[in-house]
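User: Predict the structure for this protein chain, please.
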Amino acid sequence: MTYSDSHELPRVTLVTVTYNAASVFDDFWQSLSKQVDVEWALIVVDNASVDKTSAKLALIERDPRVTVVRSPINTGAAEGNNIGVRLAMARADPYIILCNNDIVFDSNILTGLIRAKQRLSPGAVSPVLVFGDNRSATWFEMGSFSTLFGVRCVHHSSFDALPSQSYLTSYAPTTFLLFDREVIESVGELDADYFAYWEDADYVWRARKKGYKLWVNPHTVVVHKVSQSSGGFGSLYSNHQYYKNQIRFARKHFGRVVCGYTVATSLLRIGARWALRRDPLPLTKAKMLGLQAGILALRG
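Assistant: Here is the predicted structure, written as structure tokens:
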């Protein structure tokens, strides 16, 4: 029986991690506050923000549906999510969403995803994700893992018109990803050694290895202000973390040879972008230092 066959509203717990998110959090909270026909709870783990995030969280935690955890240190996205998931699993809700807070969505996003998930096999389902600064452009509608030019998570925008029903994907980010409770019970926690970037790829890879499927529902759309809380995707921090954790993911799931190939292709890509003046020197250094940190972490 689905909730549409009964008088009970569906229940879901959302987990989000904040770090200096004051510029984006209001839109996220307003979107969540407008949800209809659903009983939701929100767990926010704040990773020692130094902006006005704490003040904003103090206001919303007056809502009995909200739990705020304030970490004295920045534990990273992966461990921050783990802290939230532990609290979420203590609840009885059948669905858990891992999500960013640099997002905007309409009032039916939760019911739409839950309805879609109830018609699918156990696993997880994502909405379509569009860019915050260009909502006609798709950031994610399907994804896969590729080793052609080193291990990468590839976002595809391959449909002239989206399918009418939910469809399978090999990869989906945790920008707004709804899991059946049993998936998290089976897969366990996120790998906290990633800190930020690639932790979601690692998690969905492990879920798929357990036999769970990932889906995208084309009738639900979330606006993503891509990487705004970490300085933007072109920031030094984002690129350092991306290249560092790319190496960890490649070695962990694909072995030594593919990891070495990933290092080589990443070096070539970084060098080519600098030589062609597509990346400034500080960004090139951040990427190189990220690669170096990833290699050194393997040796440690």
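Residues 236-299 form one domain.
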